[in-house]
Design goal:
Radius of gyration: 19 Å
Shape: globular
Number of helices: 11
Structural class: alpha/beta
Helix content: 40-55%
CATH class of the largest domain: Alpha Beta
Length: 320
């Protein structure tokens, strides 16, 4: 699988990205001055990225003193939106949300996607969540054990949907953990496009963020989750290891990025606005099946490497 051979170059690039480009700008003391802000969402409406922006939007508008226009630019596992952002003026007036490990896979794969990880300044990460293997509420599979038994009885016949290479890696991690062979179905447009496929019976399951199950109003059922800690919002869902299977570690995190060269003062202004939004939405974030992240500028940059390490661990689990 092509995603298993691309670590070294991506880690170097992401290390540069974690250092950020804002501090090197000759206009480092510039202040944020936008008639309005264009906030790119590089995935389809209704997914985790859309929900992140909509949750923070009123608080960001209040903190930044200007209106935010949400601009959906879906496609290419986020590449279309991030490519557009890379070419924008680094004045803090155009930003995008960013999803890890999605951007890490894109920018470390060796493919020409029109940007690299160091083309962005990481303004802040707002939330993270484990990933889950989810089925429709009326699925015949009520537990992870039932799903695994069916997969072992019918090798390669059960289908699991996911987003691009991230979904492919998650599916491989699930197979490795459970000792099964399942068929991966890539879906473009983000989780907002996966959920209808699960509910419509077009696939047997999907690998999605736990938050989507918590917010599904009973339409989805999570069978198992990655990581080592259970979520308050999904207390009955075991981790893979808790259910008696091998480790599965890869989670998902959402943040906000700007073009490289964004002045340090603007980076700090955005960082503080994001932290304010997270603080005000903290309980709602928890109830939505997410873990709130509260970070200063340096912590936000360091988090890039932390997520890279999680991706590395997931790859090593699959390889072994």
């Amino acid at each position: 699988m092509k995603y298993l051979a691309i670590l070294a170059a991506g880690t170097v690039a992401l290390g540069v990205a974690a250092c950020g480009g804002g501090g090197s700008s000759p206009s480092a003391d510039a202040e944020l001055n936008c008639r309005s802000i264009d906030f790119i969402v590089p995935y389809a409406p209704g997914g985790g990225s859309d929900r992140q922006v909509r949750r923070m939007q009123p608080h960001l508008e209040e903190a930044l003193g200007t209106k935010i226009n949400v601009n959906y630019m879906e496609g290419g596992d986020g590449a279309i939106g991030w490519q557009a952002l890379a070419g924008k003026k680094p004045d803090g007036c155009t930003v995008s949300n960013v999803v890890a490990p999605n951007i890490m896979l894109l920018t470390s794969s060796g493919q020409n996607v029109g940007f690299t990880a160091e083309d962005f300044e990481y303004l802040g990460w707002s939330e993270t969540t484990p990933n889950v293997l989810a089925v429709a509420a009326d699925s015949p599979y009520k537990t992870i054990d039932e799903f695994v038994a069916a997969a072992k009885a019918n090798p390669g016949k059960l289908t699991v949907a996911g987003v691009g290479e991230v979904g492919e890696l998650l599916t491989a991690e699930t197979q490795n953990s459970t000792g099964t062979k399942i068929s991966y179905v890539p879906v473009s447009g983000g989780v907002g496009a996966i959920v209808p496929d699960i509910l419509g019976g077009h696939v047997d399951a999907g690998t999605i963020g736990a938050a989507h199950v918590a917010e599904s109003e009973g339409r989805l059922r999570a069978l198992a989750m990655t990581g080592t800690e259970k979520l308050e919002s999904l207390p009955d869902v075991p981790t893979y290891e808790e259910a008696g299977y091998g480790p599965a570690t890869l989670g998902t995190a959402w943040g906000v990025i700007a073009p490289s060269g964004t002045p340090e003062a603007i980076v700090k202004t955005w960082n503080e606005a994001i932290a304010d939004a997270v603080a005000k939405e903290k309980q709602q974030i928890i109830e939505a099946g997410l873990i709130p992240l509260e970070q200063d500028v340096d912590e936000a940059r360091d988090y890039v490497q932390k997520m890279t390490d999680a991706l590395t661990a997931a790859r090593e689990t699959v390889e072994n």
